[in-house]
C-alpha cells in the first residue's frame, strides 16, 4: 500500500511542487488547506485535501493526520503586510510558534512516524563574515521578527516531541529560487531582462541559494532516511556565488549582456541608509553562506541539479510568464 503523507502549506511556492514530487515518488498525498479549493494539476492522482482552517494553537489536526506516516510542515506566516510591528509579532507567534507546537502535539498523539519541518537560514541570521559560513553548530541569532519566530518554532517542535515516538527533522534553506519564484529573485530576473545597470562590478561577496528542485529532493531524503531523525540540516546548491556572478548566469540564460558597473560599497550603503533601503543593499553587497557538509556526509545527499540548471529553468519560466 502507498505511504500517506500530509503536506501543510500545499498552495505555496514550495508546497505545490513538493506534492507533485511526492506523487511522482509513489506517495499518497493529503494537503492540509485553510479553505477547500481545487487542485486540477493533481486530478486523477493519489491526492486529497482536508480543510484545517487557520494554523494556530487551536487547529484540529485529527482528521488531517488519520493514517498518515509522515508530515511535511511548510505552512508559515512570512510576516508580510502593513500591520504594526507588535501585531506582526503576535501573528507570527500564533501561526509559526504555537501552530507548530499544536501540530507536533497532534502528531505525537497519533504516533506519526516523522515530521519534517521547513525552517529558514534566517534563524541563524542575515549575513556571514567574509570567508565564514553558517553551520548547524552556529548559535542562532535571528535579527528579524520572522527569523525569530521560526527559531522559536524549532524550539517548540523539539520540546513538544521530546520523549515521544514521532521523530523530527529540521531543514534550514537560504533563498529558494526556481520557476514561479517571487521576492528578490524575481526582482533580479526583471532587472536583468530590462537591462538596468547595477553597481556590482568587482563585488566579491558570496551568497548561498538553493534551487527549488534541490530543496524538494532534500525534504524527501530527510523524510525517509533513518539517520535524519532528530537532526537539523542546512542545505544549498553546493556553491556560493557573488551577486555579480548570479546576475551573469541569469543574463547568459536570457541571452543578454549583464550591465554591471563599479561603485564603492560604502557609497551604496550610505545611499541605502539615506533611502531606508539598507536591507536591500545588504542583500546585494553582503555575504550569506551556508555549509551543507553535514547532510552531505550523514545522509549522502547532494543537490541533483546545478545552479546553472536552476537558473536556466527559472529564466525559461520567466519568459513564458512575461509573454
CATH class of the largest domain: Alpha Beta
Taking the sheet with the most strands, its summary is:
7 strands, parallel
Number of strands: 10
Beta fraction: 5-15%
Distance N to C terminus: 43 Å
Structural class: alpha/beta
Fourth CATH level, the homologous superfamily of the largest domain = NAD(P)-binding Rossmann-like Domain
Low-confidence stretches: none
Globular, elongated, flat, extended or rod-shaped: what is the shape?
Answer: globular
CATH topology descriptor of the largest domain: Rossmann fold
Number of helices: 11
Helix proportion of residues, in percent? 40-55%
Describe the structure.
The protein has 323 residues and is of the alpha/beta class. It has 2 domains: 4-172, Rossmann fold, CATH 3.40.50.720; 177-210 and 238-323, UDP-galactose 4-epimerase, domain 1 (Alpha-Beta Complex). The protein is built from 11 helices and 10 strands. It has helices at residues 15-24, 62-65, 85-109, 145-161, 183-193, 212-224, 243-254, 265-275, 278-285, 293-299, 307-321, and strands spanning 4-8, 28-33, 47-51, 70-73, 114-118, 167-172, 175-177, 207-211, 231-234, 240-241. Strand 1 (4-8), helix 1 (15-24) and strand 2 (28-33) form a beta-alpha-beta unit. The longest helix has 25 residues, at 85-109. The relative contact order is 0.13.
Task: Please outline the helices and strands.
Layout lengths: L3 E5 L6 H10 L3 E6 L13 E5 L10 H4 L4 E4 L11 H25 L4 E5 L26 H17 L5 E6 L2 E3 L5 H11 L13 E5 H13 L6 E4 L5 E2 L1 H12 L10 H11 L2 H8 L7 H7 L7 H15 L2
Parallel strand pairs: 1-2, 1-4, 2-3, 4-5, 5-6, 6-9, 7-8
Antiparallel strand pairs: 8-10
Amino acid at each position: 500500500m502507498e505511504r500517506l503523507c500530509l503536506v501543510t502549506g500545499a498552495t505555496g511556492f514550495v508546497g505545490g511542487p513538493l506534492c507533485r514530487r511526492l506523487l511522482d515518488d509513489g506517495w499518497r498525498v493529503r494537503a492540509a488547506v485553510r479553505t477547500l479549493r481545487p487542485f486540477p494539476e493533481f486530478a486523477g492522482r493519489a491526492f486529497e485535501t482536508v480543510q484545517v482552517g487557520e494554523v494556530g494553537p487551536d487547529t484540529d489536526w485529527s482528521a488531517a493526520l488519520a493514517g498518515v506516516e509522515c508530515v511535511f510542515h511548510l505552512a508559515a506566516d512570512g510576516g508580510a503586510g502593513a500591520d504594526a510591528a507588535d501585531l506582526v509579532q503576535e501573528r507570527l507567534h500564533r501561526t509559526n510558534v504555537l501552530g507548530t507546537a499544536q501540530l507536533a502535539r497532534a502528531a505525537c498523539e497519533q504516533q506519526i512516524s516523522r515530521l519534517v519541518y521547513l525552517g529558514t537560514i534566517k534563524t541563524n541570521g542575515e549575513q556571514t563574515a567574509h570567508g565564514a559560513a553558517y553551520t548547524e553548530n552556529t548559535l542562532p541569532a535571528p535579527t528579524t521578527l520572522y527569523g525569530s519566530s521560526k527559531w522559536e518554532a524549532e524550539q517548540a517542535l523539539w520540546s513538544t516531541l521530546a520523549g515521544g515516538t514521532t521523530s523530527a527533522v529540521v531543514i534550514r534553506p537560504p533563498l529558494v529560487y526556481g520557476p514561479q519564484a517571487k521576492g528578490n529573485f524575481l526582482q533580479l530576473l526583471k532587472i536583468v531582462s530590462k537591462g538596468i545597470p547595477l553597481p556590482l562590478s568587482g563585488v566579491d561577496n558570496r551568497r548561498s541559494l538553493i534551487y527549488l528542485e534541490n530543496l524538494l529532493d532534500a525534504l524527501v531524503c530527510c523524510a525517509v532516511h533513518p539517520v535524519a531523525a532528530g537532526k537539523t540540516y542546512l542545505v544549498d546548491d553546493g556553491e556560493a556565488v557573488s551577486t555579480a556572478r548570479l546576475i551573469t548566469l541569469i543574463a547568459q540564460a536570457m541571452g543578454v549582456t549583464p550591465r554591471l558597473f563599479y561603485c564603492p560599497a560604502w557609497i551604496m550603503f550610505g545611499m541605502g541608509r539615506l533611502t531606508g533601503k539598507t536591507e536591500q543593499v545588504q542583500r546585494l553587497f553582503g555575504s550569506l553562506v551556508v555549509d551543507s557538509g553535514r547532510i552531505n556526509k550523514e545522509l549522502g545527499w547532494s543537490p541533483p541539479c546545478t545552479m546553472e540548471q536552476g537558473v536556466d529553468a527559472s529564466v525559461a519560466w520567466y519568459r513564458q510568464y512575461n509573454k
